[in-house]
Amino acid sequence: MNGVAEKGSLRGRIAVVAGATRGAGRGIATALGEAGATVICTGRSSTRADAPTRSDYDRRETIEETAELVTGLGGKGVAIAVDHLEPAQVAALAERIRDDHGRIDVLVNDIWGAEVLKGAPPQWNTPIWKLDLQKGLRILRLGIETHLVTSHYLLPLLVAQPGGLLVEVTDGTADYNAQHYRISVFYDLVKQSVNRLAFSQGHELEPHGATAVAITPGWLRSEMMLENFGVTEANWREALTERGGGRHQAPPDFALSESPRYVGRAVAALATDPGRGSWNQKSVSSGELARHYGFTDIDGSRPDIWRYTAEVREGGKVADLSDYR
């Protein structure tokens, strides 16, 4: 593979990206579009006046924008407003897909929505008895319950024929999270639970010829992250300099950050691989899949901050940041 999945390699495939409004979800949807897939983009942020609910973020990005990007890159983008905490709405989504397409080839569970609830770094590492319980329980609902509801209603369409791919998007691999406390009890529980969902669902999908994989991006240059540093995707490196235009200067390892398209290309690589079953029940990073499949980020590099963390930051190896990009 040279940089990206071959153009048109997913033509005719039906993909659903649940949580496609922004961040990794938008990156995955657009990368599947690069490969020619029909991508159904779901989420709560919609231009529709009758959209079922608004996102907890109440930001400007919408699923319609994501669908337009998918189409512009060579796929076919379809925007459907859905609140994945509402079983009736997800059941209706399943019926619509069954009527329009008859199946799902790739299902991506990227639903999150708790970035604000988890708090900024000064609030991290706060013990559970000092946290707001209702906010914590909502993190669990947004990060786990949504995935369960989505799988319940949509996986029957994935196993309609052999070869389906389920991707659970998380933060941190199962191995890393098993050894590291992540931000708070609630956040920690969600992100490791999503890894386990890929394992358990992979067990159930395997007899049907389908594959489940948990994928974590590295340091993701999401819309919210770029805004935090006062930069754009075009000039993100300025966040590393004192004279950059950002409100905050980024730490040095932001040099190993990745665009949302990178994890998207990881999903596209899996979707185009006839041997993807070898990854069933695995928990992997975008950087690991890039090394295996040979795709790159939009700038032609292969950032791998998880490998850098293991080998340099925690492993004691002496190396330059550029060795991991």
Protein traits:
about 325 residues; alpha/beta; Rossmann fold; 7-stranded parallel beta sheet; 10 helices; about 40% helix; about 10% strand
Which helices and strands, and how do they pair?
Blueprint: E1 14-18, H1 23-34, E2 38-43, H2 63-72, E3 76-81, H3 87-100, E4 106-109, H4 133-158, E5 165-169, H5 174-179, H6 185-205, E6 211-216, H7 223-228, H8 260-272, E7 283-285, H9 286-293, H10 305-313
Parallel strand pairs: 1-2, 1-4, 2-3, 4-5, 5-6, 6-7
Give the distance, in angstroms, between the N- and C-terminal Cα atoms.
18 Å
Q: Detail the poorly predicted runs.
A: none
CATH T-level fold name: Rossmann fold
Task: Give the amount of beta strand, in percent.
Answer: 5-15%
Biggest pleated sheet: 7 strands, parallel
The CATH homologous superfamily is termed: NAD(P)-binding Rossmann-like Domain
> In one word, what is the shape?
globular
Q: H/E order of the elements?
A: EHEHEHEHEHHEHHEHH
Helix count, DSSP H or I runs of 4 or more residues: 10
Q: Please state the average pLDDT score.
A: 94
What is the C-level CATH assignment?
A: Alpha Beta
Number of domains: 1
Q: What is the annotated CATH architecture? A: 3-Layer(aba) Sandwich
Number of strands: 7
* Proportion of residues in helical segments: 25-40%
Structure classification: alpha/beta
In angstroms, what is the radius of gyration?
19 Å
Largest sheet: spatial strand order: 3-2-1-4-5-6-7
